[in-house]
Write a structure and sequence with these properties.
single chain; 276 residues; globular
């Protein structure tokens, strides 16, 4: 199993970047660089496509286990399970490819942006996501794949993915976890995360839905009335990571925090310093 870095007293925290550290020569080297920076997590990005052979995936997984780096993966960005039949079929295929690669790497979770509303109600879109997740889980079972599907909270008001919507899917489908993206939550609700208490409410909501290890994303975000506009560096403090860092130290649960700022590796190192 993974070597867990006991960063702050009792907390089991894994911190790392979305994507390979700058200058990485392939996935194995990316894991080595992650570890060399003192980081303990790496989210492999399949945002544009899944182009990792099983052999390469297994090599990355072996290196990650050896060095105690917790792997996760991000599924392609153009997935939308609340669309026309053709897009839903492609989305199923894209997600299954990501799941297979993640499983070969031994990644615990695959993060997915599941849907947009496309003029439908929240309930209608949620039904579509439930149907899609049931089908994905059935196929995963038939292929003996064990990765968790992580539904990410989304930052634009036009995107499906509130904590409540994710909870509705989890109530009907096993093998699904929430992935709170604090920057997205902040942006979607017009700058909602301003105090420690605001962050604590998000963590409490996630605890009600899911008691195990919590996989999170963090970035600072510029936003408009429609929500997320673009990701910003940690120094912008929109929202302020220091507020989350101070309450995480009281959390008695395993957490993975993935930095998704425009400088994900550098900011992951800063996050780690703020947590230590």
């Amino acid at each position: 199993m993974l070597i867990i870095h006991d960063i702050v007293g009792h907390s089991m925290l894994f911190v790392g970047p979305a994507g390979y550290p700058p200058g990485s020569k392939g996935g194995v080297n990316a894991v080595e660089r992650t570890k060399a920076l003192g980081l303990s997590a790496l989210e492999v990005q399949f945002g544009r496509s899944v182009n990792l052979s099983d052999e390469k995936a297994r090599e990355i997984g072996a290196k990650a286990r050896e060095l105690g780096v917790a792997l996760s993966a991000h599924a392609p960005y153009y997935i939308n399970f609340n669309s026309n039949e053709q897009t839903v079929e492609k989305s199923h295929d894209w997600l299954m490819r990501a799941v297979r690669a993640a499983d070969a790497m031994g990644a615990r979770i695959v993060v997915v942006h599941a849907a947009s509303y496309m003029g439908h109600t929240s309930e209608q879109a949620t039904r579509k996501v439930v149907e899609a997740m049931r089908r994905i889980r059935r196929q995963m079972e038939s292929e003996d794949l064990h990765t968790i599907i992580g539904l990410e909270t989304m930052g634009k008001s036009a995107s499906w993915g509130t904590l409540q919507e994710i909870a509705s899917v989890m109530a009907e489908v096993d093998g699904i976890e929430p992935v709170p993206d604090f920057g997205h939550i902040h942006a979607r609700y017009g700058g909602q995360l301003r105090t420690e208490d605001d962050f604590r409410k998000v963590l409490d909501s996630c605890s009600e839905m899911h008691q195990g290890r919590l996989h999170c994303h963090f970035s600072c975000i510029e936003y408009t009335a429609k929500g997320e506009k673009r990701h910003l560096l940690l120094e912008e403090k929109e929202p302020d990571f220091a507020l989350l860092a101070s309450i995480i130290q009281d959390e008695r649960r395993e957490m993975t925090i993935i930095s998704e700022t425009p400088a994900p590796t550098e900011d992951a190192v800063r996050m780690l310093a703020m947590l230590s």
